[in-house]
Amino acid sequence: MSTAHIKAEIGDIAKTVLMPGDPLRAKYIADTFLKNVTKFNEVRNMFGYTGYYNGKKISVMGSGMGQPSIGIYSYELFKFFDVENIIRIGSCGAYSKDLNLYDTILASDAYSESTYAFVQNKEKRDTLPASKTLNKKLVEIAEDLNIPLNVGTIHSSDVFYRESPEDTLKQAKAKKLLGVEMESYALFHNANVTGKKAACLLTVSDSLVTNKSTTPEERQTAFTNMMKIALEMAE
Ligand code: HPA
């Protein structure tokens, strides 16, 4: 079975898929945390793996960067590969000085200026919710693991390099946005239109307030708290 961007058999992919942006982070998670791993996709090097975490099946696949990219992969997984749950595990820039590097965020909603949802299905809301069912489970797991979570609305931006970052910070303050990433709004919309579930856990990789940041190597490997929470969603 093959879609335009994924070549795999339906049963090769678990009901729950974790999606980091970077396909090499997907490989790192599979190599480090999963047993009996099989690679189910390598089209465009957007690697996808299925394996077992504590004996339970789970998949992990890169989403690429930005709403168009996660829009394609999440839609194909939900619509054509019987995937029920997608949990994005990504990095974000913090908008609040109360957030430190490596803090973990759970998105209650994603706000965006993006036209993705309107173009896809005339969705007019600029803020879309994550699945309450998935979020409830993720909060319980984080409590069990003693990992503090910052829960709130995040910003899914289409633009990484803005000419006036000050305006963005003002908007973030007015709308009480915790941090900025580039994918969740499209992911949450695709879950809505396909009747599936999506959530997003983020690790703070840089701060737009203090300008502190992590290195690419740290980003690839150091986000273990977020990964441990998400992996417990294996079924
Ligand atoms: N902007 C957008 N996306 C991001 C950022 C950022 O500063 N950091 C990590 N993902």
Q: Mind sketching the topology for me?
A:
Blueprint: E1 16-19, H1 23-33, E2 35-41, E3 48-53, E4 56-61, H2 67-80, E5 85-94, E6 104-111, H3 116-121, E7 127-129, H4 132-144, E8 149-156, H5 165-174, E9 179-181, H6 184-194, E10 197-207, H7 216-221, H8 224-231
Parallel strand pairs: 1-4, 1-5, 5-10, 6-8, 8-9
Antiparallel strand pairs: 2-3, 3-4, 5-9, 6-7, 6-10
Helix pairs in contact: 2-6
Bound molecules: hypoxanthine (HPA).
Protein traits:
single chain, 235 residues, alpha/beta, 5-stranded mixed β-barrel, 8 helices, 10 strands, globular, binds hypoxanthine
Overview of the structural elements:
By secondary structure, the chain is an alpha/beta fold. Helices cover 34% and strands 28% of the residues. The chain contains 8 helices and 10 strands. The longest helix has 14 residues. It binds hypoxanthine. Hypoxanthine binds next to strand 5, strand 9 and strand 10.
Short description:
With 235 residues, this protein is of the alpha/beta class.
C-alpha Rg (nearest Å) = 17 Å
Task: Quote the beta fraction.
Answer: 25-35%
Under CATH, the homologous superfamily reads Nucleoside phosphorylase domain
The CATH architecture comes to: 3-Layer(aba) Sandwich
By helix and strand content, what is the structural category? Answer: alpha/beta
Question: Please, how many domains?
Answer: 1
Instruction: Output the helix-strand order.
Output: EHEEEHEEHEHEHEHEHH
For the largest beta-sheet, the strand count, sense and barrel status come to: 5 strands, mixed, barrel
How many E-type strands? 10
CATH level-1 class? Alpha Beta
Strand order of the largest sheet: 5-9-8-6-10
Ions, cofactors and other ligands present here are: hypoxanthine
Question: What's the shape?
Answer: globular
| CATH fold group | Rossmann fold
